[in-house]
Each structure stands twice: as C-alpha cells, then as structure tokens.
Amino acid sequence: MTLPEPKPLPPAETATIPVSETGVLRIDLAAIASNWRALRARVAPAECGAVVKADAYGLGVAHVLPALARAGCRSFFVATPREAAEARQLDACARIFVLDGLFEGGAADILAAGAIPCLASLAEVEEWSAHAQRIGARLATALHVDSGLHRLGMPAADVQRLATRPDLLSALDVVLVMSHLASADDPNEPANAIQHQAFDRLRRMLPSAQASLAASDGLMLGRSFHFDLVRPGYALYGGQAFRGSRAPVAPAVSLHVRVLQVRDVGPGSAVGYSGTWRAARPSRIATIAAGYADGVARTASADSGRAGGSVVIHGARLPIVGRVSMDLVTVDVTDCPVAVRRGDVAEVIGPSLPLETVGSEARSIGYEILTRLGRRFERVYAGSSA
C-alpha cells in the first residue's frame, strides 16, 4: 500500500492575530477526522478507536470528540474517571474506556459515566467484580495485561490466577483484553515481536473478547499487530513518531505568535536570563509573545555553546537564543532576508516546523509539545468532519 504524503495545513487565518491576543492556535477538525478515516482504512477490518485523554492531547476534547464521532468513531479512550464523565456528556452512545483503570473505591464514578475500566491488577478485578455482584449486574470490563512494558497491566502470574477464578469473571462482561507496546516507534526493535507473542499467550487465558495491542505507532507495524481494535492518539493530531514509513496522516495543528519588539545588540551583549547566550557579532534580536507558560519548552533555550529551538518568520528558519522565559522568547533574526518588525508573525508549529522538529529541538517529543500548549492563545477551530 502506497501512503500519501502528508498535506500541509491550508492557508492559515492565523497570519492575522487579533489585536488583543498574543497568538493563534489553529486546530483543523477536518484534518483530525480525515486522519482517523485514513487510519481506519489502514487497519480494516479491525476497529479504529481514538485516544482523547488529556483534553484530546491539549486540543480541546469538547471539539475533537464530536468531530471524531461524526466521522464514525465509536470507541474512545480516556485516562481518568473525570475525563470519562466529560466524554460521556459529549457522546451518549460511545464506548468509553478508562485507561487508568479502577481507582480504589471508585466503582460508582465509573458507572455514573457509563464507562468501562481497563482493569490492570487482580485487586481491581476483585473490587469491580464485588461491586457487580453487589448491584446484581454484569459489568462491562476491559482487562489490561502486561506484555512487557512493566507499567500498568496484570503480570502473567495474575493473569494465570484470574483464569482460575470463575467466581470473579462470572460477574463481568469482558469486552476487551488489551496491552501496550514499549517500543512501537521502532520497527526494528525485537521487543515488539516478543510483546506480541506474550500478549497472544496471555489473552488466550482470558474470556473471549476483542483484543487490542497497538496505538499510533503499533498500528504501523503490520496487520498482525492490529488484532480487533487499534487505539491511535498522537497520529490523529498529525503526529509522525513512527521511525519506519510515514503514517497516512496530515498536520492538524499550527501555532503563530506575534513579534513584540526588535532590537540591535552589539558583540558580546548578553540576551535573556543569566546571560547564557552572548552575541558573537552585531545582531538583531526579536522578542516574541510566547514562553513556557504557553507550551514553548524551556529546554528549547539556547546558550552560546548549544543550539536550541527555532521559529519561522517571513519563511526563514531562525534560532531561539537565550533562555525561554515564562511569557517571552528571543530569536536571532539577523540573517532573515526580510527585515523583521514589530507586529510580524512567527510560526512556532506548522508546515515549516512540524511537531517532531519542535520536540526534537527542545530535547523532548512532539507529544509533550502538543499536550503543553497553553490557554492564552486564541484558539481557532477550523474545518468540518462531514
């Protein structure tokens, strides 16, 4: 199957920033819905769900979940009971899975949201089963087994014990058995095949149900990893973390911020807190209206011995210099072919600076960049999932 090259975001209305705003974060709901459809087509006949935890990766679950539901998504994954309750308000019919499982004493909250906990320990199964028996109902359940990530998930010994406890399982309607890959972004990692085998072995000890192993990167590993249901998250929002072929998704997010001031500094002049960067030549420095309070990682700071992040102004990629502060970033615009002035617009995320580039330059990952985007920017929701 030949994958289409990702298309750039449409010409952004973000080129003009409202007079009272520091910047504009543009979220393309049509692109998110299109990304989901492309992933659904790739994994068919397996079901394609959607991970909308952490406020849909910081982009606004109140907008994103309905767009995905209109596109045809029927299974959503959140992290917490509170997120499940919010998701239920947005979709009365969808299956909503809670990845953090069952908090001790929290069965009533899960039921109130009409959600399905992903139970990751024998203790959780015992508590959920006891609650089911107490209210006289078979409760929908997902079982999360540990195939090698060693994070959340029932270890093999607990799965074996559970398989011998019909008293627990009889009170439960097991609709999903799931696990999570540790190194799915690397198609050459032997651990992927080892986890696949472990998951296959563990799920066969449990009641027959849908099986799910792959998220955004895992679904790119091939059909054998798809099982019955895949759970993309980051890829829905345009992320390209897989280190093999490109995922069939397009960018869905752009961020543009205003230039507040441009100044000349002489050789040896220090810029930013603690004077960690000094100009080696006569330089032009632009200050833009974004900082770590807005999601520009402080680790994107540059000093005189180490490069940091970058922004794009007038089509030129220009380096961040000095420390990223709470509200401001300083950029060396000396080599910009067009003179940068107050009121110009800097691209922080977009076609010229995809999430992976921004994350890498900040010595982080695109996931973190996306989920930390601040609330001070004007948010523009564009597109339709119809």
Q: Provide the gyration radius in Å.
A: 24 Å
> Can you give the helix content as a percent range?
25-40%
Q: How large a portion of the residues is in β-strands, by DSSP E?
A: 15-25%
Structural class, from secondary structure content? alpha/beta
User: What is the CATH C-level name of the largest domain?
Assistant: Alpha Beta
Distance between the termini: 26 Å
- Write down the overall geometry: elongated
Q: Kindly state the number of beta strands.
A: 19
CATH architecture label of the largest domain: Alpha-Beta Barrel
Description of the molecule:
This protein is of the alpha/beta class and 386 residues long. It folds into 2 domains: 29-237, TIM Barrel, CATH 3.20.20.10; 253-382, Lyase, Ornithine Decarboxylase, Chain A, domain 1, CATH 2.40.37.10. The protein is 26% helix and 23% strand. It contains 11 helices and 19 strands. The chain has helices at 29-43, 53-57, 61-71, 81-90, 107-112, 122-135, 156-163, 166-169, 191-203, 355-361, 366-371, and strands at residues 23-28, 47-48, 50-51, 75-78, 95-98, 116-119, 139-144, 172-178, 210-212, 229-230, 253-265, 270-271, 277-278, 283-288, 310-313, 316-321, 329-332, 345-349, 378-382. The strands form 4 sheets. Strands 1, 11, 14, 15, 16, 17, 18 and 19 form an 8-stranded mixed beta sheet that branches. A 7-stranded parallel beta sheet has the order 3-4-5-6-7-8-9. Helix 9 links the parallel strand 8 and strand 9 (210-212). Helix 1 (29-43) crosses helix 3. The radius of gyration is 24 Å and the shape is elongated. Residues 1-14 have low confidence and may be disordered.
